[in-house]
Amino acid sequence: MAYNLLKGKRGIIFGALDEKSIAWKTAERVHEEGGTFVLTNAPIALRMGSINKLAEKTNSKVIPADATSIEDLEKLVDEAVKELGGKIDFVLHSIGMSINVRKGKHYTDQNYDWTAKGWDVSAGSFHKTMQVLYKKDAMNAWGSIVALTYMAAQRVFPDYNDMADNKAYLESIARSFGYFFGRDKKVRVNTISQSPTPTTAGQGVKGFDGFIAYAEKMSPLGNATAQECADYTITMFSDLTKKVTLQNLYHDGGFSNMGVSDGVMEAFVQENE
Ligand SMILES: NC(=O)c1ccc[n+]([C@@H]2O[C@H](COP(=O)([O-])OP(=O)(O)OC[C@H]3O[C@@H](n4cnc5c(N)ncnc54)[C@H](O)[C@@H]3O)[C@@H](O)[C@H]2O)c1
């Protein structure tokens, strides 16, 4: 169902790779709600993924940018403002990557060049994106910037590896930059902490199937899907959430406040009988 929540609003959406991507679902929902946007991703992802299909469907332009490159981000923001015909109202940062995870390097045996690269892609890129938007004064007042995160920033999930540290850093950037963006430009900045979701990035984590099944059993409402994350994100882009800022917002079916559930206990008791 569409409510015209984003009519007249312009945005930039990072991180739609394929139909499973949370950014893909969000772009579809923003389009349904009347928002216009440019899509962006790293040049290599544009070659591998199917973003042009989404661009056609949502009538939007694709502008390549490596989110770790200030030069690319500056070009992206300039082109987006020109293409959309005015300043930006919403930004989705939906980017994550760890080479240590990808190459199966254990947390206690990091390759620090990979750690640094993963930090830059997953967390540093959020600061860089906001710094470019801030310096160019490219955001409209009461605009909204959202980045996606995971609860491994607060609690231990061993196989999430250095991505846990990257997410903790990302959430901190949202608060620190959110202060200045709020004070100086009346722009809000938040992170949405999403349930495990079967996407390319999600499924790259070792033991993902166990991970997602456990979270499903633990959460009173069950895991939140990518589609539901898209629904939540558009409310954060809308004028209905104007005074929400500097928050890490859990979108996880209740998982983050659980100790144990009947479902998990049952499985545990059976295993030990
Ligand atoms: N899938 C999950 O279980 C889950 C749970 C919580 C949070 N998240 C977060 O959601 C976000 C989106 O991930 P997803 O699950 O939709 O997976 P995805 O693989 O579809 O998206 C990750 C995106 O990051 C992009 N990216 C990587 N390096 C980049 C770079 N240098 N510049 C620009 N873009 C780059 C990829 O091309 C890809 O589009 C990530 O921040 C992820 O950590 C995912």
Q: Any idea of the CATH topology?
A: Rossmann fold
Taking Cα atoms only, what radius of gyration do you get, to the nearest Å? Answer: 18 Å
Q: CATH-wise, what's the superfamily?
A: NAD(P)-binding Rossmann-like Domain
Bound molecules: nicotinamide-adenine-dinucleotide
Give structural notes:
With 273 residues, the chain is an alpha/beta fold. It has a single domain, classed as 3-Layer(aba) Sandwich (Rossmann fold). 47% of the residues lie in helices and 14% in strands. The protein has eleven helices and six strands. It has helices at 22-32, 43-48, 51-58, 70-84, 99-102, 112-135, 163-185, 200-203, 208-218, 226-237, 262-272, and strands at 10-14, 36-40, 88-93, 139-149, 188-194, 248-251. A six-stranded parallel β-sheet has the order 2-1-3-4-5-6, sandwiched between helices. Strand 1, helix 1 and strand 2 form a beta-alpha-beta unit. The model has no long low-confidence stretch (mean pLDDT 96). It binds nicotinamide-adenine-dinucleotide (NAD). Residues 14-15, 17, 21-23, 41-42, 45, 66-68, 94-97, 121, 148-150, 194, 196-197, 199-202 line the site of nicotinamide-adenine-dinucleotide.
